[in-house]
Design a protein that fits this description.
Elements: H1 6-15, E1 31-36, H2 41-54, E2 61-66, H3 72-78, E3 86-90, H4 94-99, H5 114-121, H6 124-129, E4 131-132, E5 135-136, E6 139-140, E7 142-143, E8 146-151, H7 162-166, H8 169-173, E9 188-191, H9 197-206, H10 227-239, E10 247-248, H11 252-260, E11 264-270, E12 284-287, E13 291-294, E14 297-300, E15 304-305, E16 308-312, H12 319-329, H13 332-342, E17 345-346, H14 349-353, H15 355-358, H16 361-370, E18 374-375, H17 382-398, H18 405-419
Parallel strand pairs: 1-2, 9-10, 9-11, 15-18
Antiparallel strand pairs: 3-16, 4-5, 6-16, 7-17, 8-11, 8-12, 13-14
Helix pairs in contact: 9-17, 10-18, 17-18
């Protein structure tokens, strides 16, 4: 990013219509606070150091504080003035935070083209995910989705016919499973967290259903209660129950650990597992999501995709510097660092074409799945989805929803009713 004079920082504050906040603890005058995940602290501190060296006109000190992006929205909403200036958040928080007036709109300034650069330099789906009611509110950092991991200790992909086998949920669930190493207990075949709306959607999307319409912006356009949605519910009630013995629902990280230890043949989890649970594991391989078989037809599961983004607190007294810092953290070079050091797929188009990303087999699978994914909606009403989906998925897994058509349809009708209730 080009260096700017002090006067430009002042001009940016004015032209962005941009008000310091600190992170945890007492505020310090002249300090800009940036939040980031615990696992990213080392990298983030290095990037902040580079920012200060390359922008000597920035007079504020910069403090890096740990804050989980998954609940950043609720922390900011609780006390905006005590929150950080630069905040790492999930894209599905954008609409809710923007509607509540918690975020500064990102616009071009007299000497900086923040909004133009975001729109021109990033994947169109991620640009959509930082846009609410036509305005930009975030600097994209990553693109996230999930894929299927499997252990060659159970599903040996070198055997004939294994490609077709691993492409089918039904074939995996029908497999004669070996014992868990050192135990007389049978290994489980396949798993994902059906009680998490981030994963429950896969079957509904596979059946052609939509959440909040084709583009995720119409609160009245969820059709999971239609005929196709009911067909998936019938499939799930039959195949994704704990009592069946072949399917396991749990936290995605726990499932990944079970695959690593040959207790579970395959699971669906996020790309981040390769840098965490599966780091250096030789028995782990990965591929895009498998298909379910409904009325004799193969229906590939379709993932959600989301993004991590940096936003600027609307209560910040350092919005000019905060915007410059957020733009720097998320630029092409630093997105590549997040890719190579943390395993995050970049949203920056140029970074995606870098050989470190483009030629990496793991990122190739992530890219292929991203192309078959549906972006998590940004509208504030998405906040109602997660608990409603949890109720449906958990009821399937624990068996309180059986295969009775009437009870399955009622659960879908109730689900839609919960989505459309007032915020």
């Amino acid at each position: 990013m080009k260096r700017m004079k002090k006067m430009i920082t002042v001009a940016l504050c004015a032209c962005l219509g941009l008000g310091a906040l600190a992170g945890c603890g007492e505020k310090t005058a002249g300090e800009v606070v940036v939040w980031g995940g615990a696992e990213d602290q080392t990298l983030l501190k290095e990037i902040v150091k580079d920012f200060k060296e390359q922008n000597p006109d920035v007079t504020e000190s910069i403090k890096v504080v740990v804050q989980d992006p998954w609940n950043a929205q609720s922390v900011v909403a609780n006390d905006p003035e005590a929150a950080a200036d630069v905040i790492l958040a999930q894209n599905d928080h954008i609409g809710l935070m923007a509607k509540a007036g918690l975020l500064a709109e990102i616009r071009d300034g007299t000497a900086a083209t923040f909004a133009t650069d975001i729109r021109n330099n990033n994947d169109k789906n991620v640009v959509q995910q930082v846009t609410y009611e036509g305005k930009l509110y975030g600097f994209p950092l990553t693109m996230d989705t999930y894929i299927m991991y499997y252990t060659t200790g159970i599903f040996n992909d070198e055997l004939p016919g294994m490609d077709a086998f691993l492409s089918s949920v039904d074939k995996m669930l029908a497999a004669d499973m070996p014992n868990i190493p050192g135990s007389t207990e049978k290994a489980t075949a396949f798993g994902f967290n059906i009680g998490d709306g981030f994963y429950l959607n896969m079957g509904f999307f596979a059946m052609g259903c939509t959440l909040f319409g084709e583009d995720g912006t119409d609160v009245n356009a969820c059709n999971w209660d239609n005929e196709n949605g009911l067909k998936f519910m019938q499939y799930a009630a039959k195949n994704f129950r704990q009592s069946g013995g072949k399917f396991k629902s749990d936290d995605a990280k726990n499932l990944a650990t079970a695959v690593l230890n040959n207790r579970l043949g395959a699971c669906i989890s996020g790309g981040w597992e390769m840098k965490d649970t599966f780091k250096g594991a030789k028995n782990i391989k990965y591929r895009t999501l498998p298909a379910i078989t409904v009325e004799g037809e193969q229906k590939p599961l379709i993932s959600f995709s989301n993004s991590k983004v940096y936003v600027v607190n609307n209560k910040s007294e350092h919005k000019g510097t905060a915007s410059r810092l957020a733009a720097f953290i998320t630029n092409e070079q630093n997105q590549l660092r997040y890719a190579t050091e943390r395993g995050y797929y970049p949203s920056n188009l140029a970074a995606q074409q870098n050989t470190a990303v483009k030629d990496d087999p793991f990122f190739q699978v992530i890219r292929e799945q991203l192309d078959q994914s549906v972006p998590v909606p940004v509208i504030p009403e998405i906040s109602r989805y997660w608990e409603a989906a949890k109720s449906v998925g958990s009821s399937i897994y624990n068996g309180s929803l059986d295969g009775d058509t009437a009870s399955l349809q009622k659960s879908l009708d109730d689900f839609i009713g919960n989505l459309q209730s007032a915020l």
